[in-house]
Amino acid sequence: MSENLLDDALSRISRFAEQADVAQEVIDSLMQPRATKTASLPVRMDSGATEYFTGFRCHYNNQLGPTKGGIRFHPNVTLEEVQALALWMTIKCAVMDLPYGGGKGGIIVDPKKLSPMELERLSRAYVRAMADFIGPQTDIPAPDVYTNARIMGWMMDEYEAIHRVKAPGVITGKPVRLGGSLGRDDATGRGAYLCTLALARKQDLTPQDTSVAIQGFGNGGYHAARLLQKAGFKIVAISDSRGGIYSSEGFDVESVYQEKQRSKQVKAVYCNASVCEQVDHDAISNEELLELDVDILIPAALEGVIHRGNATKIRARHLVEIANGPVEADADEILEEKGCIVVPDVLANAGGVTVSYFEWVQNRQGYSWDAETVQERLSERMERAFEDIWEQSRQHNTGLRAAAYILALKRLGEAVEAHGTRNYFNS
Ligand code: GLU
Asked: For residue 108, what are the β-bridge partners?
């Protein structure tokens, strides 16, 4: 892999720029973030001692609108990772035709080691440090890895206390009662599910004969698995950070989820009401899950799980990326040569930011939409984006990832061209 995640992300921009045929100014504008803030966050721990955590927020690019993107709490967060994720948000929002640029934030912390009150104090400390760097018209955070609606609620509350205004549009993914949108909680998984349905139609896959393996059973992975199973797909493998389970018969997703809520582990069970029984299965590792011979593989955990070292071993015919950046740039070609069709993260996981956009619109309107309206509009947007990308990939004879980047670069290019480029001023 490249030295760091940002270089890896930038190598794709350079690679796809030629095919997109946009002015050099467009590419130049994407080669570095506009601004990144690093802050030390003092938090009073339950013991009475003060600990200092490091937090980041990056505004990568705001040519299409205010920067948008989640905040993750994870021990492996780095500045470059946050910047790479913010670049991917820039591409994602352009792919979905949302009036947003790309941003991202993160705190280096293992949230599982904090008490609920420490977590609240840390979330509020982050907003105190970033209160002038975020805002409903400038930069709008949301949930990401290990952050959730409750944390978004604390963050909004802190922002409002500092600025002495009600400003629900400063953050999305909030609890519904505090200005959140119906349908935001399962939006990432639903978006991936809608992409998988669209892919199945294009590839003539019948759900009943299609096996799916899911790596990662957090919010995105769970909801995608649940909806796919409901539509008839066979969910043959599921894993979380501690390992996974496989059965060619397929699992009942809801049972596995219920059990995971109880025991914090992915276990092969079938539950009837609250009575769960173990079902036949093989215990597998995360690496083994990635290498299963399945129709669709869904990486839904962290970045970089498929790389030069294991890409040749991937046997899935299709990949739907719920995680951000699960495939490193130098594995793209290997997968392509194998004929594996990849629905890229910037499309497959874009349901989350799309419903975040709907939430922000509702906050600005002061009017909330019902769940049906949210779901209908999400379907429309996902299907349109999938079709646009499919069409681009036909036109340019490329994979879907290249097609998504070409589409995004063209849209960003139109914004740059609208102000005039070298060609305009020199003619
Ligand atoms: N963190 C999510 C993502 O990576 C959601 C971002 C948002 O809703 O703004 O797309």
From this structure: 74
pLDDT digits (tens, 9 = 90+) for 183-228: 999 999 999 999 999 999 999 999 999 999 999 999 999 999 999 9
Cβ contacts of residue 279 below 8 Å, gap of 6+?
247, 249, 251, 268, 269, 270
Cα(84) to centroid(ligand 1), Å? 13
Residue 289, token pair as written in the block: 């899950």
Q: How far is the CA of 172 from the centre of ligand 1 (A)?
A: 9
Domain annotation for the chain: domains and CATH numbers: 34-178 (3.40.50.10860), 187-348 (3.40.50.720)
Please state the three-class secondary structure of 99-111 as a single string: CCEEEEEEEECCH
**356 pocket-lining for ligand 1 (C-beta < 6 Å):** yes
Distance CA 60, CA 68 (A): 9
Q: Which atom belonging to ligand 1 lies closest to the Cα atom of 349? A: 10
pLDDT for res 422: 86
Q: What is the pLDDT of residue 1?
A: 46
Residue 3 is predicted with a pLDDT of: 61
- Six token digits for residue 222: 């769970």
Q: Which of 77, 174, 356 should be mutated for ligand 1, with most atoms under 8 A from CB? A: 356
pLDDT digits (tens, 9 = 90+) for 155-179: 999 999 999 999 999 999 999 999 9
Close Cβ partners of 133 (under 8 Å, ≥ 6 residues apart): 35, 37, 57, 59, 139
Instruction: Point out the catalytic residue in the list 37, 68, 92, 104.
Output: 104
Q: Is 104 a catalytic residue?
A: yes
Mean pLDDT (the chain) is: 96
Residue nearest to atom 9 of ligand 1 (CA): 69
Q: Which ligand 1 atom lies nearest to the CA of residue 141?
A: 9
